[in-house]
Amino acid sequence: MANLLWRNPERRPAATEHPFTSLQSAMNTLFDDFFTTPPLGVRTLPSTRAAMTEFNPRIDVRESANEITVAAELPGLSDKDVHITLDRDYLTIKGEKKFEKEGDENDRHYIERSYGSFMRTIPLTTEVDRERVEATFRNGVLKVALKKTAAAQNEPRRITIKG
Description:
Blueprint: H1 2-5, H2 19-36, H3 48-53, E1 59-63, E2 67-73, E3 82-87, E4 90-97, E5 116-123, E6 128-138, E7 141-148, H4 150-153
Antiparallel strand pairs: 1-2, 2-7, 3-4, 4-5, 6-7
């Protein structure tokens, strides 16, 4: 049971340590973790290294009777930085947001923006017409419209039973 209280091996009690001292140390660790770790659902600012290597664009997928529309937020990119592929039942959007270094090596930086390569793969739930796919890129938002095939538009429909 004592090993469950000690996540950090350096904080384990010495063999000669008094039991109340080890309990006090465990309680200190518990309260330190509670007050320094953000609560569930709260995002903190990422570290500089993590921010520079983790760019994951946000996407919206909407499906209507005639088409599937995918919108991706890609701030700071141009249409030449993004590649879209349609393979079987998947739409893949990939590209890279490059870090723009300004100033000399001794400048200090505070970085919250994310950089790096990304790839988002969206599974498609119905058949789409590969020849009628349209993509537009405006104001940092990529929109891909995938028209459904005639067979996909005529999918079976559920009929309610009246009692």
